[in-house]
Amino acid sequence: MAQPELTIVPLTIPVVNDAVRRWHRHHDAIPGGFAWFCVGAVADGRVVGVAIAGRPTNRNNDDRQTVEVLRVASDGTPNVCSALLGACGRASRAMGAARVITYTLEGESGSSLRGVGWTREADGIQSWWTTPSTGRTAAVDRPHMQERKVRWALNIRPPIDYVLPDAIEEPTQTGLDFGGAA
User: CB pairs under 8 A, 24+ apart, for 29-36?
Assistant: First the structure.
């Protein structure tokens, strides 16, 4: 069977979340405010995979220069995940990110990530949602939350130091009159 040609397209969060609900093995949809961009892979006129990227979920990775791929899901079409991860890397580079990260379960191979140049950055990560020392429990405790994770990264450029302005001033009145009485 021939490999279908894949085209990457932008999608909306409701469309992507619907696909995640149907195709992802253990994750559910995410709230809209967490996504910075969503893409889909199209083959033969059908969406066959989706990805959502946004702000890192772990505050230790949220340096204002890192993008996290939050969800990747497909209908099983070959090479879709690699195409989507590659697209997320290119989009993140275009928006000025220094790096892109994502997580897999330890039992997952990461072959789609390796295939598009990501590197294994950290192993044995335990979800803090269910760590007894925090006293926290997840809103919905799912079996995958007990499994250790692997963090993968695509390093685009070294991070830079910068400061944000203290305040952004409102524009001042220009004195221009657009059709009012003189």
Answer: 30/54, 30/70, 30/71, 34/70, 35/70, 36/67, 36/95
